[in-house]
Each structure stands twice: as structure tokens, then as C-alpha cells.
Amino acid sequence: IVCPNAEAASRVAAESIAATIDSALKSRGKAILGLATGATPEVVYANLAARHRAGGLSFQKVVTYNLDEYYPIQPIDPLSYRSYMHRHLFSRVDLPANQAHVLDGTVPEAFVREHTAEFDRWIEADGGLDLQLLGIGRNGHIGFNEPAEWSVAEAAAAPTRLVELHPVTRADAVREFGDAAKVIPRALTMGVKQILSARAIVMLATGPRKASIVAQALRGPVTTAVPASLLQTVADRVVWILDEPAAAEL
Ligand code: GLP
């Protein structure tokens, strides 16, 4: 779906999330959402919060799992994805606090594997994700699944885990951290396996900086050098929502 601008693209993404909540509540009594951070989805969350305020959308029966979190980081750090989610969505809707899951950047390293495995088990115990909202990094990352030298099969099976951030990701994060030396170089990320297992995947990409990587991910070969290209393997469940600048190289 190509929209004239980022605002319109964000509205389409928010509509699709609201429709998923509605239909999952009708069929199963709860809705399980995978959420993303970054600059791109901010307007999506503003739109969902506005729908909640207007009275049409409740998050009482919604369960959320966020894609990623810096490691290590305190949840109250304004740069944590937990605090991003609090600012943009959690504090603005009626989502019960114990139904909002963000990977914990304070877990001691010796317990990270246990924590990330538990995160995957929780998603599975909830019946899997009804919808995963995604953004794309300039290097094609989804969540913090970075370009890596491993096979497509290995990448597709990757569980939630601790990763090192790619140089392009670290360079882009200077925007948030203000200084290259302050960028936290590691993160916890949902694995490609969980992402690709979602019953619906909404990829939102806006702005001219994303045009080249969007074209590579959508039209190029399926390769772990561009993690988002793995979405081609589940194409029937993926919707790409773009604005015109992000779609310019298609
Ligand atoms: C961030 C996040 C991703 C996000 C991407 C794009 O680092 N880990 O989940 O989709 O990079 O961010 P932005 O929307 O700010 O371009």
C-alpha cells in the first residue's frame, strides 16, 4: 500500500491494528500484538490513543509484546524502549500493565537466555501474535535482527536473544543518544522466528532514507544480508505500508 505521505501511511497502519484487535476479540476474546519502536510508529500510536480517547477502542483484552530493548538499560531511562512505549502508548490507553511485555534490559547477563526463552514461551502460550507491527532499519534490520553471515534457514529459526548492534544501527541511534560514544552497543531482540510466525505482519516504512532498503527487501533476493527480505518467505501474511518517498525506488 503506497500512501501520499507518512501521516496517511500511519493512519492505514493504525486502522489495520484496530481491525485486528476487533476481529481477534470477537473470535478468541483477546488480541496479541507485537509492537515496534523508532520514529516511524509514533504517529500510529498517537492515532490508536486518539481512537481510545474517542471511546471506540479498548486495550483491556489486548496483550502486547515489544520487539526489542537496549541491553543493559534501566526501564526508567528515557532512552529505553519501555519508556518510549510508556510515553507513546501505554500511558495513553487502558492496557493493563501486566499485559504489556517489553524485554527487560536489567536482567543479569547470566540469566538473559532464560529471560529471552521465557519471552518466546509466553508468546506461544498466548497463542502466538495476531499482528506484528514492524519498522525497517536502513540496513534492513527487523527488530534488532541485524544483517549477519548465516543461512536463511538459521536466521528464520533465530529465537529471541541478546545481539550486537550493526555499525549502521549504531550510527542511526546517535539521533536518540546524542553522542556516538553513548550509544548502547547491544540489545535484546525478538527472533526472526517469532516475527515470521505472526498471523499478520504490518511493515511500515516512510521517508526517502528508507527507499533503497525497501526496494532491496521487497524486490531483491531473500538474503540474511537484508533481514527484512525474509518477509518474502511469508509474503501472503505481510502488508508493506509505505509513503511515496519510501516507495520511490520500487
Ligand atoms: C530501530 C528499532 C527497529 C526500528 C528501526 C527503524 O533501531 N530497533 O525496531 O524499526 O530501528 O527505526 P526508525 O523508525 O526510527 O527509522
TrEMBL record:
Its EC number is 3.5.99.6. The gene is nagB_2. GO terms for biological process: carbohydrate metabolic process; N-acetylglucosamine metabolic process. One of its GO terms (molecular function) is glucosamine-6-phosphate deaminase activity. Keywords: Hydrolase. It comes from the Bacteria. Transmembrane segments: none annotated. It comes from Paludisphaera borealis. This is Glucosamine-6-phosphate deaminase 1.
